[in-house]
Amino acid sequence: MLRGEGAPSPIWEGEDGVIAWLLGGPNVEYHVPLPGPGEAKRAILDTYTKEHSAEYQSQAPIDLARRMRERIGDLDQIESIVLHTSHHTHVVIGTGSNDPQKFDPYASRETLDHSVMYIFAVALQDGTWHHERSYAPERAQRPDTIELWNKISTAEDPEWTRRYHSTDPAEKAFAPAPRSR
User: Fold this and answer.
1) What is the distance between the alpha carbons of residues 75 and 69, in angstroms, rounded to a whole number?
2) Which of 32, 68, 80, 155 is least surrounded, with the fewest CB atoms within 10 Å of its CB?
3) Which pLDDT tens digits describe the chain residue by residue (181 residues)?
């Protein structure tokens, strides 16, 4: 257990483990193709790494908030921010989830990690993202953060959804387009 976060153990084995529920049971065989002798090991090129210790879909919004911070000036003057993003981001970590906990300053770290509105507000205010400080209860409960956080929403944008699912590297995109008033 790290910083109070826990998970079931053992996760793979047992009658309620991942193998039993998701992979068809302990007697099922799976074949994983590996590169042949002399063949390049290129699977890492098919993965997406994270710069920030935050939910994958929030990586680009953190970077966007950091870049926008200097352009905005007085954050108290913001009326609203709408992050136009893919369907997945909107319904999983955005307001399309209809999850009121995503705006709860007393929510767990795991819940805050799945609120792009919270993550964007903190990154916009701080100009950075920290794996511990950005999730700390005293950080989440700051009145100015709560005020800004509640001004942020997401909207699904069909173009971002299309680009998110694109297999063409020239089109594939993850970043939302913010619109502030």
Assistant:
1) 8
2) 32
3) 455 555 555 666 666 566 666 777 667 777 777 888 998 887 777 677 788 989 988 999 999 999 999 899 899 999 999 999 999 999 999 999 999 999 999 999 999 999 999 999 999 999 999 999 999 999 999 999 999 999 999 999 999 899 888 888 778 775 544 454 4
Distances in whole angstroms, Cα of residue 27 to Cα of each of 30, 36, 132: 10, 27, 41
Contacts of 173 (CB under 8 A, 6+ apart): 160, 163, 164, 166
Residue closest to 72 by CA, chosen among 154, 148, 176: 148
- DSSP states along 61-89: HHHHHHHHHHHH--GGG---EEEEE-HHH
Kindly list the domain boundaries of the chain, sorted by start residue: 56-180
169 phi/psi in degrees, rounded to 5: -60, -25
